[in-house]
Amino acid sequence: MVFNEARSCAGVIEAIQDHLPALYFVFSRGRTEQLAEELGREWDFLLPREKTRVREILEKAEQDHPGLFGGRRRGLRRLLLQGIGYHHAGLSPALKELVEKLYESRLVFVLFCTETFALGINFPAASTVFDSTRKWDGRNHRSLLNREFFQMAGRAGRRGFDRVGHVYITIDEKFPEQTGFFDESQVEPVRGRLVISPNTVLSLLQWKTDAEIERFLTQNLAVYQNTREARNLAEELETVDEKIHALRGTFCEDRDSPSCPLLRRKLKKELNRLRNRKKRKKPDTPGRVAEIKSILAQPAKGCLHYACRDAQEEIAVLVERKKELVRRRRELKSHAVDYHREFQRMCDLLEKLGFIEGKTLLPRGLFALHVHVQEILVTELVFSGILRDAPPAEIASILAGVDYQPGRDDVVLPGTYPMDEVALLRSELLDAGVPEYLCVWSPLPGPLAEAWYQGATFEELQKMCNLHEGDIFSIIRREIDVLRQIERAAGEDAELRQIINDIRNVLDREEMAVLV
Predict the structure, then answer these.
(1) SS3 call for 4
(2) 2-186: what fold?
(3) pTM for this one?
(4) pLDDT for 86-126, tens place per residue?
(5) CA distance 74 to 138
(6) What is the C-alpha to C-alpha distance for residues 1 and 75, in angstroms, rounded to an integer?
(7) Domain 370-513 class, CATH top level
(8) Tens digits of per-residue pLDDT, 379-396?
(9) How many CB atoms lie within 10 A of CB 269?
């Protein structure tokens, strides 16, 4: 069922109230909260005994996690007591687990959620509702892919409860193409994609023979899929050309001559168009009308031209299909990756940076072999002496920014350490030819890790920034993982290993240990 965008979410829920619980998919964190508050002003789904049960669950959660509903989550507690919730990556792990528990216990009747809720979590609903079928993909707004739509829509229908699942979509009148909807038979295939990262190259050089490297570069899933599709396209193009050639044999030698019925029919249609008032005013129209009349004045061939007409129409369809196949083949060729060239390019970069010499891993390469995120940057932070010379709190501050890309509106209060050395090192790596995606680092989250290392509470971290609590968790958890990798890479360097281990143990505590 389709709803006009002008209908409020409360109006949508009123229309589908016989098909609850519902997962209401929204494509921004802020809007999940906004719509939940909007619905909460008009609806309360819980009976008194259900409210009592929810209250007991909430109180138990708050005992286990003090301050769970602090800050921007104060309103969520009230909404959950009304059978309404929201779920997105910005929530703390404890809150997400609580919301999931209440939903699974059938104590949340409408859950506003982002698409991540449909990935890997088996919580079906009687209905799914789409706030929109357009999303921001990091570069622009686009319509959902078939596979994205069916991944979410497929949550509708609970085995043992619902004979059918219901899917409802709110349509924006500015994008009428949304009413075309999605075709399950056209779900996009999963495409293989091999990324030749520094760690990939180092691992191949360290552990594989030349023959094994060659097989890895030529027999991976991405190459297989591209080769198979290119072969299928070539075969279909050949078939289309053969059909066109065979159909052209239908035409006689008088085709397109003044006596040909097909040409005469085409000219008659053109003559009717030229008699239009607007066309008549054009200076070249009288001459063209006279030319057509002259041709039509000649005797027509008395033949049954239906076979020619049908052949011509079929040829037109085949020509369009051929254009589509040629376009797809050109697109496939432009996106094909030369993995040998990518491998050699990465080898050249690593040799230039002193990670390898020929096929031999040097100390930097042996270290980076055990690092799986921003391996060049992390290795240089160690070998440049920046991490070795810094106090533990500064190391924590530096590593919090590894692989972090701040949002446009993210704000964190400044910390103690300027981190100019790290910014300079990153700039030097970029100048040396390291691609931007292999040198992702930001000073923004550093003060949060610094404060956490020095014993700040999670509530204090929240006051230092405008980030969602889930994002703060992600920053520290990601850093703990980086520290674990550095500790493993340090090998026999007992001093570095101990420094990193001590920092990791300090960070991996209390709320931040929830995900362990």
Answers:
(1) strand
(2) Rossmann fold (3.40.50)
(3) 0.75
(4) 999 899 999 999 999 999 999 999 999 988 877 656 688 88
(5) 30
(6) 31
(7) mainly alpha
(8) 999 999 999 999 999 999
(9) 10
